[in-house]
Design brief:
This protein is an alpha/beta fold and about 475 residues long. The chain contains 14 helices and 21 strands.
Length: about 475
């Protein structure tokens, strides 16, 4: 269009244009300007103007916008529904203005009547603004609903702005271990190649992965395993496992191994009727103090810590001998505090991570590991030099298949888009259509066991079928074909 107008102008001049052509050009120019303004503009919608259920409007104190804020989120169904008017159909960045003086909270989101995950509201003593990720809005009115969740917070407003197209990812096939095995580099390179183009399907436990084959005639590309039973304080109580043998079997089928470690505490298990020895990986199941232990390297507890790492190294070396690359995810969910390795805060956990990395990589020379960190909080991140991939675990409400785009964006920001981002545990599986629409480029997902894949509530049979047969999702049969092409 531009070159035709230019040619007309150069041959006819402006006076050679009829009035209809002139009007068209003016309207075309103004429409472009108006669209640009709309895409750059932000729009705020006050919570006090919304539809209230069990909550009320208050105008006390200072720092809020508009004429007040919504408070009184106490009962499970308390909510505010805010009508958001979108000038254009498309993907928008969403922010929520809130105050949370009663500790860290969670609110449940829904969009146009459908559940849309949860939003973590960090404790604050003043009104602040929080990024809630992206939402796909229709042109015109849309409903954004915030339901109590943990309750005891204040909602001020929601704000939207047209989202920019995601830039090309900057991830390179470089691992933090300079001596990484060829197999580890090959797997990481494959994941980098697929990043943003597809998502790898995953299922925790070999048993559940094989059951997918029975029920849906398809197996996932990734299977999740756990070294829990190899923890010395579990072995001492008679625990045993075939997990390593299962990983060898899965590798022979062509699948990718992702591996966690529910690390039973090295000592000081409570071992009572309420807290039996096998709950020793939980904070409440042990009195073991990781912060104290790391301050006394000569202590017996520290030596037991090293003993445990060395015991796990034995199992990892078997995998290395069989040339199996491992997506290695120890110390998972540390920031939650429910596991002893995160119970004393960020600093001891980061120190333990670095000890684990050094002991396995430099002392034991285990080079088949791709190190997967499992937290989005910046203050918990141990550093780019000891992390290959960042991840989160997410459990939305049953049947909520939203793409978890806000948490994806947090992880991308954490590593400046230089490392892969994965969903290492999930309840409901994100809808692949929404993953593409929201540009939430998770490298893989890994659905948790038993009821999460079987009860028909967390994931319906129709949804599982939809996911496993989706062109955006890589399953085991497709994985083997794609890796041969690499």
């Amino acid at each position: 269009m531009g070159h035709l107008l230019k040619e007309w102008y150069e041959t006819k001049g402006i006076f050679g244009m009829n009035r209809w052509m002139m009007l068209f050009i003016i309207m075309f120019f103004l429409a472009g300007c108006e669209k640009g303004k709309l895409e750059e503009s932000t729009f705020i919608f006050e919570a006090e103007a919304g539809s209230l259920n069990g909550v009320g409007v208050v105008a006390k104190g200072s720092g809020y916008s508009g004429e007040g804020y919504v408070t009184g989120f106490e009962q499970a169904e308390d909510s505010v529904t805010i009508i958001v008017h979108s000038p254009l159909k498309g993907l928008y960045q969403l922010w929520v203005g809130y105050n949370g003086p009663n500790g860290d909270k969670v609110t449940q989101l829904s969009l146009n009547g459908s559940s849309f995950g949860e939003l973590h509201l960090a404790e604050t003593t003043e009104f602040v603004e929080l990024s809630a990720g992206k939402v796909l809005l229709n042109k015109g009115d849309n409903e954004i609903k915030l339901t109590s969740g943990w309750g005891w917070y204040d909602i001020d407003y929601v704000k939207i702005q047209k989202a920019e197209q995601r830039a090309k990812h900057q991830v390179e096939n470089v691992l933090v271990n300079p001596n990484a095995s060829p197999e580890a580099l090959e797997l990481h390179g494959f994941l980098v190649e697929q990043y943003g183009k597809s998502i790898l399907s995953g299922q925790q436990t070999l048993k559940n992965a094989l059951e997918l084959k029975r029920d849906y005639a398809i197996m996932p590309a990734v299977a999740g395993f756990d070294l829990m039973e190899y923890s010395p304080t579990r072995v001492e109580h008679g625990a045993s496992a075939d997990e390593v043998e299962d990983m060898l079997m899965w590798h022979d089928l062509g699948g990718i191994v992702t591996l966690a470690w529910h690390w039973n505490a090295p000592t000081e298990l409570i071992n009572s009727a309420e807290q039996p020895w096998w709950k020793g990986f939980y904070t409440e199941g042990t009195t073991f103090d990781i912060a104290e232990t790391l301050m006394h390297l000569e202590s017996e507890n520290y030596q037991l810590l090293i003993r445990d790492i060395d015991a796990i190294a034995v199992q990892l070396k078997i995998l290395q001998e069989h040339k199996i690359p491992v997506l290695w995810r120890p110390l998972h969910e540390a920031e939650g505090g429910w596991f002893w390795w995160g119970a004393k805060g960020a600093e001891p956990t980061k120190e333990l991570w670095k000890l684990l990395y050094d002991r396995l990589t430099n002392h034991h020379q285990i080079n088949n590991l791709i190190w997967v960190w499992n937290s989005e909080a910046p203050e918990w991140y141990p550093g780019d030099d000891v992390v290959d991939i960042v991840s989160i675990d997410t459990y939305t409400q049953p049947g909520d298949y939203n793409p978890i785009s806000n948490r994806y964006d947090h992880l991308v920001e954490l590593v400046k888009d230089k490392k892969l981002v994965a969903m290492t545990e999930n309840g409901p599986i994100p809808d692949p259509d929404m993953l593409e629409d929201y540009q939430a480029h998770w490298s893989w997902f890994c659905t948790w066991t038993e009821e999460f894949i079987k009860d028909g509530k967390h994931n319906s049979k129709e949804h599982i079928q939809h996911v496993l047969n989706h062109e955006y999702v890589i399953t085991l049969d497709e994985l083997n074909a794609l890796r041969k092409q690499q």
